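Supplementary Text 2. Reproducibility record for the structural model of the 294-residue chain.

All settings were left at their defaults, and a single model was retained for analysis rather than an ensemble. We include the record here because the model underlies the residue-level annotations in Supplementary Table 4.
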Amino acid sequence: MNKQPTPSSPSAQADIRLSCADFTFPLLSHDRSLDLIRDLGFDGVDIGFFEGRSHIQPSLALAAAGPAARNLRESCEGRGLKIADLFLQPGAELGILSVNHPEAAERERSREIFRRSLDFALDCGAEHLSVLPGVPWDDGEASFERAVEELAWRSELSARAGLPLSCEAHVGSVVPSPAGALRLFEAVPDLGLVLDCSHFVVPGYPWEEIEKLIPHAVHVHARGACRDRIQVVAAENTIDFAALVRSLRERHYTGWMCAEYVWMPKWDCDRVDNLSETILLRDVLLNELSGSRE
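Retained model, structure tokens:
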């Protein structure tokens, strides 16, 4: 019998690899954040590309895209980290430069940032690119229809470039429910899902509804959450990570799972010790990934 990997051994990850978000540790410099992610044993890093609130911001990086992409690539490769995902959020608030903004000029600005961010993702060696699906505006169904049109355009552009694209259905988005997300991915079949169960656990959707989204998942975010609280300590978590890993494996998922604790005042996400919770989650996921192969 082969010796079983220890919980902290990356070899336990098999075909599903583990990454950690660089925006989990925003008070560290980016180099220190990458050092820590490497030292925790993760194979990859998810890069936050958030305007106004991440180590690397679109407006600054895209102003000198070539050198910025090269520096990011070298920083990660030098630490043995793969860039699992580049997560683009072009506005400092969700409505700013939203993909489904009601003003055509704003949507065109958002498209241009996406074009340039796609090139940046390719140049820095990212394996995946993520965006948000847009927010509900006062025009009701038209908000969803614009999201479909804009995400289809982005999906086609990404496919031509050979880089997987997905969006994260989330609390406050135009698709805040599992049913709404399914409707979106049926309308844009080439678009993948960033599956973050916490956004569906908070409003109380049952696992049976969340699980239906797994066939659309091309990237997964993981963190502890419970009803009405989007980020909690392990003892309060109600997400069944064992069931999640089983379902992913049953559907032959071979992408990344990202430990994605965040630190910000919004949603009281500054009340968790991100380092300790990331370690605990890492070990839970490694144990489940190892055990699910037996």
